[in-house]
Specification:
seven-stranded mixed β-sheet; homodimer; Aspartate Aminotransferase, domain 2; 13 strands; globular
Chain lengths: 369, 369
C-alpha cells in the first residue's frame, strides 16, 4: 500500500459539544514517557488522580476513578454494575443521552420506565413524584447537562424524591462536571459519571465515575456477575485500591492528561471555574443577541457550557458550519434528532470557556449569517 | 486539598509484558492539536488508519478499526458481538488470557467448553479435533501469543479444524500483532483483536479489531441486541463507515498515536518487523544463557516478543525486579498465577525490540543475580 501522509491536524477552535480545547500543559502531559501500569510511580499518580477526582466531584466517596473508555463507557459502567435482569429503573428522557440511558439499561435486562419531557425543556419533579409513588425503583437516572439540548437539569427536588423512594440516584455529569456545580455528596447523588473531553479540559478517552458506599453495597450483593468484564468495578477497584491486582492495562498517557487537567482545574478552584463558565456563557448570549441569534432554552435552565442557539430563519445550517471550519477553523455543533437543522450547539467548556472564543465566533458568524 | 506534585514520570526502559516503549514520533503525535470526532480532517485520519490496520492484520476485511478501550475491551467486543445466550463456544486455555476469554464468554450467557494445556505449553490440535467432532460451536477462540506464559500458539492446524466444524475462528493477537506473522486472511482467522501497547509501539488505550464478512453476517443476524452498548459494532461501524453516524466521542489523541505507530510499522514493513523481533529474541536467549537464565518455554513455541525466563534457584524475584526499577530504570514482568515467582517475563516489543535493550538488561541482571 502507499502510506498515508503524516498527521497534520488543523488547529481548530473547538466550540462544539466536545471535545473541548486542550491546553498546552495537558497536551504536554500526554507526551510524557510511558511507564508500566504497575510501576510504583504510576501507582502514586493513580492515587493522586483519585484524590483530585473526589475534590472535583465534591465527594468523600472512596470509589472515584477514571474508567478506561469515553463518557458512554462511564454510563455503561454505572448501569451494568448496578443492574441485574428484571431490576426496575426509572430514567428521565429529554434528549439523546437520556434516550441512550434507556437503551443501555434495557441491554442489562432491566425493566425501564421513563419520565419524559420535550427536548429543550427540563424534566418535571412532579412527574418523578408520581412515578416513584407507584413503584420501587432500584435506580433512578437523569442527565445533568443534556448535551443534545443545552438544558441544565435542576437536581435537588428529584434527588429528594428518589431517596424517599429508596432508589439510588444516578446522574450523568459528562458535560457539567467542572463547568457547573456537581456537588455529589451535598445533593445526594449516589452514582455519578463524567467524561474528560468537556469541562475537565482533557482529550476524550477516559470517564471518571464515583459510587458511594450504598451503591458499592449494591455491587457487593449482586446475585450474578456484572455482564461486562471490562467495566466490572468489583475487579477494577482492586487495581485502583490497595490490592493493586492487575485487571487491564491502564491507558497510561490518557491518565497523565487527566492528572494534568484535574490539577489545572483545582489550581483555579471549583467555584472559580463555575463562575467563569457562567460569565462566558452570559457574554455569548449577549454577543449572539447582537446577531439576532437567540438561545433555544429558557434562561433558568440554560447549561452554561453547552449553549444551544436557534438558527435564524433562512440561514443554511450545514453551509455555515462548513464555512466556520474552512474559513475560520472554528467547530460548532449541529442539532441532533428533532433539533437537527433547528439549533447550533456552542460549547464553551473547560479551557475553551473564554471570552476571546466568544469574540472569535461572533466575528465569524457576523460574516456568515 | 493540597495539590499533588506535577507529573514527572521516570524514563523507564519498558521490557515487561506491556506497555512497550513508545518512540518520540508517537509521543509527539499524542500532543498534536485535538480536533472534533466529526471533523472532516479527522474522518480522513480514520480512513487512513483503517487502511493501515488492514495491512497490519494482512486482511481485505472491510471491518478493521480500533475500539475505544484497551486490549481487553477488544476481547469483549469480539465475544459480545458474536455471542447470544445459550451459544456454544470452544476456548483454548493455557494461560491468563484464555482463562479471561472463558469469563467474558460466560458473562454473555454462552455455553463454554475448553481445551486445556499446561501453562507454558501449546494447545494440542488433536484435542480440538476431538472436541469439535462432538459438538457444533458457534465460535472457537484461542490466544496467539499468551502473554502470561510466553507461548506462541501455532494457528494453522487449529484453523482448519475449526472451519471443518463450521465454527468461527477467533484469535487474540494482542501481543503478537506486528511482532510475529498474524496473516488473518491466509490463516483463515474470522475475527481478530489486538492492543496498541505491545508490538504496535503505541501507548495503551485502543484495541484494533477485524471481522470478516462471515462474522459480520453473524452480527447482522442476531436475535437480540449486543449486551454492551459501548462495544456494539453494528453502531460503531456506522461511525467508521461512510454513514458517519455519531456513536461515542472517539479518543482523538490516542487515534493520532495509533496512526503514527501504524505508519512507522508499515514504513519498516511487516516482514522486516517480524524478522527484527525474531533476531532480538535470539540475542536475548543467547545473552541470558551466559547468565545461566534459561527460557521457560520450548524453542519451537517461544513467542519472540514476550520472553519467559526461568528465575534461577536462590534468586529473590521481587527484589531483583525492584532493583531493576530503582537502580537501572528497567521494567520486566513478574510471573502470573501458577508461574508467579517462577518466571520473569521480558517483553521485546515494537520500538522496544532492539539489541541495545537486551544489552542493557543483561548488564543489569549480571549485577543482580
Amino acid at each position: 500500500m502507499s502510506l498515508p501522509p503524516k498527521l497534520n491536524p488543523p488547529n481548530r477552535t473547538l466550540l462544539g459539544p466536545g471535545p473541548s480545547p486542550v491546553s498546552q500543559r495537558v497536551l504536554q502531559a500526554l507526551s510524557l514517557p510511558v511507564v508500566g501500569h504497575l510501576d510504583p510511580e504510576f501507582l502514586k499518580i493513580m492515587d493522586q488522580s483519585m484524590a483530585m477526582l473526589r475534590e472535583v466531584f465534591q465527594t468523600k466517596n472512596r470509589l472515584a476513578l477514571p474508567m478506561s473508555g469515553t463518557g458512554s463507557a462511564g454510563m455503561e459502567t454505572c448501569f451494568v454494575n448496578l443492574l441485574e435482569p428484571g431490576d426496575a429503573v426509572l430514567i428521565g428522557v429529554n434528549g439523546v443521552f437520556g434516550t441512550r440511558m434507556v437503551d443501555v439499561a434495557q441491554r442489562c435486562g432491566a425493566q425501564v420506565d421513563t419520565v419524559e419531557a420535550e427536548w429543550g425543556t427540563a424534566l418535571d419533579p412532579q412527574q418523578f413524584r408520581t412515578a416513584l409513588a407507584k413503584k420501587k425503583y432500584k435506580v433512578t437516572a437523569i442527565v445533568h447537562a443534556e448535551t443534545s439540548t443545552g438544558v441544565l437539569q435542576p437536581l435537588d427536588d428529584i434527588a429528594r424524591l428518589v431517596h424517599e423512594n429508596g432508589s439510588l440516584f444516578l446522574v450523568d455529569a459528562v458535560t457539567s462536571l467542572g463547568g457547573a456545580p456537581v456537588r455529589v455528596d451535598e445533593v445526594g447523588i449516589d452514582v455519578c459519571y463524567s467524561g474528560t473531553q468537556k469541562c475537565l479540559g482533557c482529550p476524550p478517552g477516559l470517564s471518571p465515575v464515583t459510587f458511594n458506599e450504598r451503591a458499592v453495597e449494591v455491587i457487593r450483593n449482586r446475585k450474578q456477575k456484572v455482564q461486562s468484564w471490562y467495566l466490572d468495578l468489583s475487579m477494577i477497584e482492586k487495581y485502583w485500591g490497595s490490592e493493586r491486582v492487575y485487571h487491564h492495562t491502564a491507558p497510561i498517557s490518557m491518565n497523565y492528561a487527566l492528572h494534568a487537567a484535574l490539577r489545572i482545574l483545582l489550581e483555579e478552584g471549583m467555584e472559580a471555574s463555575w463562575q467563569r463558565h457562567r460569565q462566558v456563557h452570559e457574554t455569548l448570549v449577549r454577543e449572539m443577541r447582537k446577531l439576532e441569534v437567540e438561545p433555544a432554552v429558557a434562561e433558568s435552565i440554560r447549561a452554561p457550557m453547552i449553549n444551544t442557539m436557534t438558527i435564524p430563519d433562512g440561514t443554511d445550517d450545514a453551509r455555515v458550519r462548513q464555512r466556520l471550519y474552512d474559513e475560520f477553523n472554528i467547530e460548532i455543533g449541529a442539532g441532533l434528532g428533532p433539533l437537527k437543522g433547528k439549533i447550533w450547539r456552542v460549547g464553551l467548556m473547560g479551557y475553551g470557556s473564554r471570552v476571546e472564543n466568544v469574540e472569535l465566533l461572533a466575528k465569524a458568524l457576523k460574516q456568515l449569517i
